[in-house]
Amino acid sequence: MPIPPWAPYALLLIEVLLFFRHVLFLPDFVIPWDIRGYHLPIAWFTAESFARWELPLWDPSVYCGRPLYANLTAQLFYPPTVVAISIYNALGLGSSEALLYVLEWQLVLHVFAGGCFAYLLGRQLGMDMAGALVCGSAFQLGAFFSSQAQHLGAVNAACWLPLVWLLTLRRRWALLVLALAMVFLAGFPAVTSAVFGAALVLAVFRRNLKLVVGVLAAIAASLALSAVQLLPTLELSRLSVARYRADWMGTGGGMPLASLISLLAPDYYGLFDLQSYRYPHEVSQMYTYSGLTALVLAGWALWRRAAGAEMFASLVAVFALWMLGASTPLGAALFGLLPAFVKSSIYLEFALVAFSLSLAVMAGLGAWHLPGKWKVVAVVAVAADLIAVSSGRPFNTARQSADPGIGDSHVDGREEITRIMRQLTGQATPPFRIDTMEESMGWAMGAPLTAVPTASGNDPFALNSFMEARREFVKGERWGRYYEVADLAAPMLDFMNVRYVLSRREWDADLLQRAHFRRVRDLPGRIVYENMEVMPRFFLEGGTVRVISYAANGFTLETETPRPGTLISSEAAYPGWRAWVDGREAPLLTVRKAFRAVEAPAGKHRVEMRFEPSVLRWGALLSSLTAVLLVIFWRRGL
C-alpha cells in the first residue's frame, strides 16, 4: 500500500505537538522568559494599535517613548506575526494570556515549518522518505528549537534556513530572495546573520562561483525587499545603545566549549533543574543535544561514505567553530577582524541553527543508507529520543503558577496591584510615570500590558540620548538598556514625570526626606513611594498647559502664557516627530539631552505633535519597487 504524500508532514506535525504538549494542551504551562517578558507586551501594544486601525509607530509607555516601528524585534512587517495578531483581534479574545497562547502557537507552527522544509531539503539531496523524515525530525526537535523557544524572533527566522538551502541548491532566485527577506523580517539579527552566512557557506562548499554570486545577489535583493523595516532599523541602530553592543560583546562571545558535553550528556551540568544549575553561562547556551540516535546515524553516513556526507560533516565543523566563537583561539581571532557594525548585530552562539541543520542532514543521510527494515526504526528512534530528552525542560516549558509574571490584569498574579497602580498614575492625563529600585524587572517592559507608564525599559534598542539622560540617576555602562534608580534625589527623576517609585524594601527615613519622597502605599510584595517634587509631563514656565488629547502617535495641547516661552515635555525626542502651533508647522527643539520642546507664543494657542517618520515612507517605496521586480523575475522562471 503506497504511503500518501501528506503522511510525512502529518508525522512531523504529530512530533511537534508531542514535543510542546505541555504548553499547547495544559493550561498552567507556558514557554518561559523572553516570549512572556519581552515579546508579549510588544504584541499587546501592536494588537491594540491594529484594533484602532493604526500602525504601532510610537510606544509612549516605555523609556518616556520609543519608536516601536523601527525595532525589528517587534516584527511589525513579518507576515506570520501580523496574521497571528490579527486572528487574535478577530476572535475578540481580549486577554494577555490568550495573546500569549496565540504567540505560542505561532512559534510551534514555525518549528513545524522548519521540520517540513528540512524534510524537503532531504528529498532534494536524494534521500528516500525515511532519510528525509529523520532529517526533518532531527532539525525540528533538535538543539536549536528546543533550547531557544523563548526567543520568538529567533525561532521564526531559523525555520527558514532549510528552505534557503533548498532554494539555493535549486537556484530558484526569486523565491530565495523572498525566503531571505522573511528571515530578516522575523526580527532576530543574530539568526539572520547565521542564515545568510550559512547560505553563503553552502554555496562556497558547492565550489560554484555562479552559485556564490547568486546567493550574494539574493541577499542584497532580500534586504531591498525588506527596506520598509531595514531603513528604520538602521536609523534606530545609529541612535540607540545598539551602536555600542560590540563594546559589550568584547572578544565575541559564543557558546562555551563545555556546551559540547551536552551532545552526549544533556544534563551533565544540571540543565534540567535550574535550582541546581551553577554554570556561569545562560542555560540555553549550554544545550547542544541533538539526539544520540542522530549522532549514530551521522557516523553511519560517514562510515558508508554516503553522497554529501563528507561535505556536511565539514559544515558541522565550520558551524561548530562559528557558534563556539571566542571559546576557541581561531574563533576569537576571526571575530576580532570584523568591523564594529557587524559585531554589534551578531551573537555567535546562534550559529547553532546551522550546526543543528547540518547534523540533521547527516543523520538523514545515515538513515537513508540503512537496510530497509531499520529505516522505520530510525525514524521512530530519532523522534522518541529527542522528545523524551529535550521536551518539557526549563528552557522550553515553565509553570505559570510558579511565576505569574505581569499581564494585562495582574502583577505577580495579584490583580489589586495593577488596579491600584493604574489609579495612582491615572490622576493625570497622560498618566504619571513610575520607576523601580530593587523591584521586579517586569515593570520595565510590561508597561503596555499594565497601562502603567515607566521611565525605564529593557530593550536592546534603547535610545542613546535618553539613556544618557537616565544615567544621571542610575549606574551603568553606556551600552546598558536596563538600570534601576540609584539616586532618588536626582532632578532628572523629577523632570521625567516619575511620580512613583516601587521597591521591595523599606527605605531609610532620612533618604526619603532628602529626596522629597514619601511612603504612600503598601502592596503585596512591594512598597510605593511618591515623589513630592515631580514635574508635569508638559511644562511652560510662567504659563499653563492643558492636554486636549493624548495618543500614542500624537497629542494636542492648549497653552496660555503672557509672554513667549518654551513648551517643554518629558517625551523622548526622535526623528519623525513634528510640531504645529495653530496649524502652522514649528521647529522642534531638544532639551535636557533627549526631550522634545517647541516655542510657544504669547497668548492662548493650540500645539500639536505628531509622529510621521519619513524613513518609513522611503522604506515602503523601496520595498514596493523591489517586490515588483521580484514578481517580474519570478514570472520569467528565475
Question: Can you tell me about this structure?
Answer:
By secondary structure, the protein is α+β, with helices and mostly antiparallel strands. The chain is 49% helix and 13% strand. The chain has 26 helices and 15 strands. The protein has a 5-stranded antiparallel sheet, with no helix packed on it. A hairpin with a 3-residue loop joins strand 13 and strand 14. Helix 1 packs parallel to helix 6 and helix 15 crosses helix 19. The mean pLDDT is 95.
Question: What key attributes describe this structure?
Answer:
638 residues, alpha+beta, five-stranded antiparallel beta sheet, four-stranded mixed beta sheet, 15 strands, globular
Across the major sheet, the strand order is 8-9-15-11-12
What is the SS-derived class?
alpha+beta
Q: State which percent range the strand residues make up.
A: 5-15%
**Main β-sheet description:** 5 strands, antiparallel
- Which residues sit in consecutive blocks of at least 5 with pLDDT less than 50? none
The helix fraction, in percent, is 40-55%
Summed up, the helix count is 26
Calculate the terminal CA-CA distance, rounded to whole Å.
38 Å
Rg on CA atoms, Å: 26 Å
Shape: globular
The count of β-strands is 15
Mean pLDDT: 95
Q: Short summary of the structure?
A:
This protein has 638 residues and is of the alpha+beta class. The chain contains 26 helices and 15 strands.
